Q: What sequence folds into this?
DNA sequence: CAGCATCCGCGTAGATACTG
DNA sequence: CAGTATCTACGCGGATGCTG
Protein backbone atom coordinates (compact mmCIF):
# COMPACT_ATOMS: atom_id res chain seq x y z
CA UNK A 1 0.00 0.00 0.00
CA UNK A 2 1.18 3.46 -0.85
CA UNK A 3 -1.58 5.45 0.73
CA UNK A 4 -2.08 4.80 4.39
CA UNK A 5 -4.00 8.03 4.88
CA UNK A 6 -7.42 6.86 5.93
CA UNK A 7 -8.19 9.68 8.35
CA UNK A 8 -10.98 12.05 7.50
CA UNK A 9 -11.10 14.12 10.67
CA UNK A 10 -8.51 16.92 10.77
CA UNK A 11 -8.69 17.34 14.55
CA UNK A 12 -7.66 13.74 14.83
CA UNK A 13 -4.29 14.44 13.36
CA UNK A 14 -3.85 17.43 15.60
CA UNK A 15 -4.08 15.46 18.79
CA UNK A 16 -2.04 12.65 17.33
CA UNK A 17 0.82 15.00 16.66
CA UNK A 18 0.89 16.36 20.15
CA UNK A 19 0.08 13.60 22.58
CA UNK A 20 2.42 10.62 23.00
CA UNK A 21 -0.05 8.71 25.13
CA UNK A 22 -2.65 8.77 22.39
CA UNK A 23 -0.19 7.68 19.78
CA UNK A 24 0.80 4.74 21.91
CA UNK A 25 -2.84 3.98 22.63
CA UNK A 26 -3.49 3.88 18.92
CA UNK A 27 -0.96 1.04 18.81
CA UNK A 28 -1.84 -1.05 21.82
CA UNK A 29 -5.32 -0.04 22.96
CA UNK A 30 -6.93 -3.18 21.75
CA UNK A 31 -7.52 -6.40 23.56
CA UNK A 32 -5.51 -8.65 21.28
CA UNK A 33 -2.36 -6.54 21.46
CA UNK A 34 -2.41 -6.61 25.23
CA UNK A 35 -2.98 -10.35 25.30
CA UNK A 36 -0.20 -10.95 22.79
CA UNK A 37 2.26 -8.91 24.82
CA UNK A 38 1.22 -10.73 27.96
CA UNK A 39 1.71 -14.09 26.29
CA UNK A 40 5.09 -13.24 24.79
CA UNK A 41 6.18 -12.02 28.19
CA UNK A 42 6.33 -15.71 29.00
CA UNK A 43 8.90 -16.23 26.26
CA UNK A 44 9.21 -16.76 22.52
CA UNK A 45 6.20 -18.33 20.83
CA UNK A 46 5.33 -19.66 17.41
CA UNK A 47 2.34 -18.43 15.47
CA UNK A 48 0.32 -21.58 15.91
CA UNK A 49 1.03 -21.71 19.62
CA UNK A 50 -0.26 -18.20 20.08
CA UNK A 51 -3.36 -18.96 18.08
CA UNK A 52 -4.14 -21.80 20.43
CA UNK A 53 -3.22 -19.95 23.60
CA UNK A 54 -5.31 -16.90 22.91
CA UNK A 55 -8.73 -18.41 22.69
CA UNK A 56 -11.08 -16.68 20.34
CA UNK A 57 -8.53 -14.84 18.24
CA UNK A 58 -8.85 -15.35 14.50
CA UNK A 59 -5.89 -15.99 12.27
CA UNK A 60 -6.49 -12.67 10.61
CA UNK A 61 -6.56 -10.64 13.81
CA UNK A 62 -3.51 -12.38 15.23
CA UNK A 63 -1.52 -11.69 12.08
CA UNK A 64 -2.72 -8.11 12.01
CA UNK A 65 -1.88 -7.55 15.66
CA UNK A 66 1.56 -9.10 15.34
CA UNK A 67 2.36 -7.02 12.24
CA UNK A 68 1.33 -3.88 14.03
CA UNK A 69 3.40 -4.68 17.09
CA UNK A 70 6.33 -5.54 14.89
CA UNK A 71 6.01 -2.22 13.14
CA UNK A 72 6.04 -0.46 16.50
CA UNK A 73 9.23 -2.25 17.50
CA UNK A 74 7.52 -4.08 20.33
CA UNK A 75 7.68 -7.55 18.84
CA UNK A 76 10.34 -9.12 16.65
CA UNK A 77 9.60 -11.76 14.06
CA UNK A 78 12.00 -14.49 13.03
CA UNK A 79 11.32 -16.68 10.02
CA UNK A 80 13.04 -20.02 9.60
CA UNK A 81 13.51 -21.11 6.01
CA UNK A 82 12.41 -24.65 6.68
CA UNK A 83 9.70 -26.95 5.48
CA UNK A 84 7.21 -26.67 6.96
CA UNK A 85 7.75 -22.98 7.70
CA UNK A 86 8.36 -21.87 11.24
CA UNK A 87 7.91 -18.34 12.53
CA UNK A 88 8.79 -17.21 16.00
CA UNK A 89 7.74 -14.09 17.79
CA UNK A 90 9.62 -12.49 20.66
CA UNK A 91 9.36 -9.31 22.66
CA UNK A 92 12.04 -6.76 21.89
CA UNK A 93 13.67 -4.95 24.83
CA UNK A 94 11.17 -2.17 24.20
CA UNK A 95 8.38 -4.70 24.28
CA UNK A 96 9.68 -6.18 27.50
CA UNK A 97 9.53 -2.82 29.22
CA UNK A 98 5.95 -2.43 28.08
CA UNK A 99 5.20 -5.95 29.22
CA UNK A 100 5.85 -4.81 32.76
CA UNK A 101 2.84 -2.56 32.56
CA UNK A 102 0.73 -5.27 30.98
CA UNK A 103 1.76 -7.56 33.79
CA UNK A 104 0.67 -5.05 36.41
CA UNK A 105 -2.63 -4.79 34.59
CA UNK A 106 -3.01 -8.54 34.75
CA UNK A 107 -2.36 -8.50 38.49
CA UNK A 108 -4.82 -5.67 38.97
CA UNK A 109 -7.43 -7.53 36.95
CA UNK A 110 -7.14 -10.68 38.98
CA UNK A 111 -7.28 -8.72 42.21
CA UNK A 112 -10.26 -6.60 41.28
CA UNK A 113 -12.37 -8.52 38.82
CA UNK A 114 -14.75 -9.58 41.58
CA UNK A 115 -15.33 -6.00 42.62
CA UNK A 116 -15.92 -4.92 39.04
CA UNK A 117 -18.37 -7.73 38.35
CA UNK A 118 -20.22 -7.00 41.59
CA UNK A 119 -20.46 -3.35 40.64
CA UNK A 120 -21.90 -4.29 37.27
CA UNK A 121 -24.53 -6.48 38.93
CA UNK A 122 -25.56 -3.68 41.26
CA UNK A 123 -25.67 -1.19 38.42
CA UNK A 124 -27.79 -3.41 36.20
CA UNK A 125 -30.14 -4.16 39.08
CA UNK A 126 -31.12 -0.52 39.55
CA UNK A 127 -34.86 0.12 39.27
CA UNK A 128 -34.35 2.43 36.31
CA UNK A 129 -32.15 -0.06 34.53
CA UNK A 130 -35.27 -1.61 32.97
CA UNK B 1 -32.53 -2.49 27.74
CA UNK B 2 -33.53 -5.96 28.74
CA UNK B 3 -31.46 -8.01 26.38
CA UNK B 4 -27.76 -7.36 26.56
CA UNK B 5 -26.90 -10.65 24.93
CA UNK B 6 -25.23 -9.67 21.68
CA UNK B 7 -22.65 -12.44 21.53
CA UNK B 8 -22.87 -15.02 18.80
CA UNK B 9 -19.63 -16.87 19.30
CA UNK B 10 -19.77 -19.55 22.00
CA UNK B 11 -16.01 -19.64 22.52
CA UNK B 12 -16.18 -15.97 23.40
CA UNK B 13 -18.19 -16.68 26.48
CA UNK B 14 -15.87 -19.45 27.45
CA UNK B 15 -12.86 -17.27 27.70
CA UNK B 16 -14.82 -14.49 29.28
CA UNK B 17 -15.91 -16.72 32.07
CA UNK B 18 -12.44 -17.87 32.89
CA UNK B 19 -10.01 -15.03 32.37
CA UNK B 20 -10.16 -11.93 34.57
CA UNK B 21 -7.70 -10.04 32.41
CA UNK B 22 -9.93 -10.36 29.38
CA UNK B 23 -12.98 -9.28 31.28
CA UNK B 24 -11.19 -6.20 32.47
CA UNK B 25 -9.87 -5.56 28.97
CA UNK B 26 -13.40 -5.68 27.68
CA UNK B 27 -14.08 -2.75 30.00
CA UNK B 28 -11.08 -0.53 29.54
CA UNK B 29 -9.30 -1.63 26.38
CA UNK B 30 -10.35 1.36 24.39
CA UNK B 31 -8.62 4.64 23.95
CA UNK B 32 -11.32 6.87 25.41
CA UNK B 33 -11.60 4.92 28.64
CA UNK B 34 -7.88 5.17 29.25
CA UNK B 35 -7.87 8.89 28.49
CA UNK B 36 -10.85 9.48 30.77
CA UNK B 37 -9.20 7.66 33.64
CA UNK B 38 -6.01 9.60 33.06
CA UNK B 39 -7.87 12.89 33.08
CA UNK B 40 -9.90 12.12 36.19
CA UNK B 41 -6.70 11.12 37.90
CA UNK B 42 -6.08 14.87 38.00
CA UNK B 43 -9.24 15.34 40.03
CA UNK B 44 -13.00 15.71 39.66
CA UNK B 45 -14.19 17.05 36.33
CA UNK B 46 -17.45 18.18 34.83
CA UNK B 47 -18.78 16.71 31.62
CA UNK B 48 -18.14 19.79 29.52
CA UNK B 49 -14.62 20.13 30.83
CA UNK B 50 -13.80 16.58 29.86
CA UNK B 51 -15.27 17.09 26.42
CA UNK B 52 -12.93 20.01 25.88
CA UNK B 53 -9.89 18.37 27.45
CA UNK B 54 -10.10 15.19 25.45
CA UNK B 55 -9.77 16.49 21.95
CA UNK B 56 -11.58 14.52 19.32
CA UNK B 57 -14.03 12.72 21.57
CA UNK B 58 -17.66 13.05 20.58
CA UNK B 59 -20.35 13.77 23.10
CA UNK B 60 -21.81 10.35 22.44
CA UNK B 61 -18.58 8.46 23.01
CA UNK B 62 -17.77 10.39 26.15
CA UNK B 63 -21.18 9.64 27.62
CA UNK B 64 -20.92 6.01 26.61
CA UNK B 65 -17.44 5.65 28.07
CA UNK B 66 -18.41 7.33 31.33
CA UNK B 67 -21.50 5.16 31.72
CA UNK B 68 -19.44 2.07 31.16
CA UNK B 69 -16.80 3.10 33.68
CA UNK B 70 -19.52 3.99 36.15
CA UNK B 71 -21.05 0.56 35.70
CA UNK B 72 -17.68 -1.02 36.41
CA UNK B 73 -17.32 0.96 39.62
CA UNK B 74 -14.32 2.86 38.32
CA UNK B 75 -15.96 6.26 38.05
CA UNK B 76 -18.65 7.84 40.18
CA UNK B 77 -21.19 10.32 38.88
CA UNK B 78 -22.70 13.12 40.92
CA UNK B 79 -25.64 15.11 39.60
CA UNK B 80 -26.49 18.50 41.05
CA UNK B 81 -30.16 19.45 40.82
CA UNK B 82 -29.44 22.96 39.64
CA UNK B 83 -30.23 25.06 36.62
CA UNK B 84 -28.31 24.73 34.46
CA UNK B 85 -27.53 21.11 35.33
CA UNK B 86 -24.12 20.22 36.64
CA UNK B 87 -22.64 16.73 36.59
CA UNK B 88 -19.34 15.83 38.13
CA UNK B 89 -17.27 12.73 37.56
CA UNK B 90 -14.72 11.38 39.99
CA UNK B 91 -12.57 8.28 40.23
CA UNK B 92 -13.69 5.82 42.87
CA UNK B 93 -11.02 4.24 45.09
CA UNK B 94 -11.08 1.32 42.67
CA UNK B 95 -10.61 3.72 39.80
CA UNK B 96 -7.75 5.40 41.55
CA UNK B 97 -5.89 2.14 41.89
CA UNK B 98 -6.36 1.52 38.19
CA UNK B 99 -5.27 5.06 37.45
CA UNK B 100 -1.86 4.16 38.80
CA UNK B 101 -1.41 1.75 35.92
CA UNK B 102 -2.71 4.29 33.42
CA UNK B 103 -0.24 6.77 34.81
CA UNK B 104 2.64 4.36 34.33
CA UNK B 105 1.46 3.84 30.77
CA UNK B 106 1.52 7.59 30.24
CA UNK B 107 5.08 7.77 31.52
CA UNK B 108 6.11 4.86 29.34
CA UNK B 109 4.48 6.49 26.32
CA UNK B 110 6.28 9.76 26.79
CA UNK B 111 9.57 7.99 27.32
CA UNK B 112 9.30 5.69 24.34
CA UNK B 113 7.16 7.37 21.73
CA UNK B 114 10.23 8.49 19.84
CA UNK B 115 11.53 4.95 19.62
CA UNK B 116 8.16 3.65 18.49
CA UNK B 117 7.78 6.31 15.81
CA UNK B 118 11.31 5.69 14.57
CA UNK B 119 10.59 1.98 14.36
CA UNK B 120 7.48 2.67 12.33
CA UNK B 121 9.47 4.83 9.92
CA UNK B 122 12.06 2.13 9.44
CA UNK B 123 9.39 -0.51 8.98
CA UNK B 124 7.48 1.49 6.40
CA UNK B 125 10.69 2.27 4.53
CA UNK B 126 11.47 -1.38 3.85
CA UNK B 127 11.87 -2.20 0.16
CA UNK B 128 8.99 -4.66 0.26
CA UNK B 129 6.72 -2.15 2.00
CA UNK B 130 5.70 -0.78 -1.42
C1' DC C 1 2.67 -24.09 9.03
C1' DA C 2 1.97 -19.43 8.45
C1' DG C 3 0.01 -16.37 5.95
C1' DC C 4 -2.55 -13.51 2.17
C1' DA C 5 -6.82 -12.26 -0.57
C1' DT C 6 -11.52 -11.64 -0.84
C1' DC C 7 -16.11 -11.20 0.49
C1' DC C 8 -19.57 -9.60 3.62
C1' DG C 9 -22.48 -8.61 7.74
C1' DC C 10 -22.97 -6.22 11.80
C1' DG C 11 -21.70 -3.13 15.15
C1' DT C 12 -19.60 1.15 16.26
C1' DA C 13 -19.09 5.77 16.01
C1' DG C 14 -20.26 10.24 13.79
C1' DA C 15 -23.81 13.68 12.70
C1' DT C 16 -27.97 15.75 13.69
C1' DA C 17 -32.09 17.02 16.17
C1' DC C 18 -34.46 17.40 20.38
C1' DT C 19 -35.22 17.67 25.88
C1' DG C 20 -35.20 18.25 31.25
C1' DC D 1 -25.41 22.09 30.55
C1' DA D 2 -25.71 17.43 29.99
C1' DG D 3 -27.60 14.54 28.15
C1' DT D 4 -31.17 11.08 24.96
C1' DA D 5 -32.90 9.47 20.36
C1' DT D 6 -32.49 8.31 15.69
C1' DC D 7 -30.29 7.63 11.29
C1' DT D 8 -26.58 6.31 8.56
C1' DA D 9 -22.10 4.59 6.72
C1' DC D 10 -17.92 2.65 6.92
C1' DG D 11 -14.59 -0.03 8.79
C1' DC D 12 -13.64 -3.92 11.84
C1' DG D 13 -13.43 -8.47 12.24
C1' DG D 14 -15.16 -13.33 11.01
C1' DA D 15 -15.43 -16.93 7.46
C1' DT D 16 -13.68 -19.02 3.55
C1' DG D 17 -10.45 -20.38 -0.01
C1' DC D 18 -5.84 -20.43 -1.77
C1' DT D 19 -0.34 -20.22 -1.67
C1' DG D 20 4.94 -20.58 -0.60
A:
Amino acid sequence: MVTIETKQHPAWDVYKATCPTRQVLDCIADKWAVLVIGLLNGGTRRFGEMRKSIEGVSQKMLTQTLRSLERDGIVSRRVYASVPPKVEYTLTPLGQSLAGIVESLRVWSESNIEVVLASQQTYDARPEAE
Remarks:
- The helical segments of chain A are 10-18, 20-28, 31-40, 47-53, 59-71, 93-124.
- The radius of gyration of chain A is 18 Å.
- Chain A is about 60% helix and 10% strand.
- Residues 9, 46-48, 51, 59-60, 63, 79, 83-87 of chain A lie near DNA strand C (CB under 10 Å from a C1').
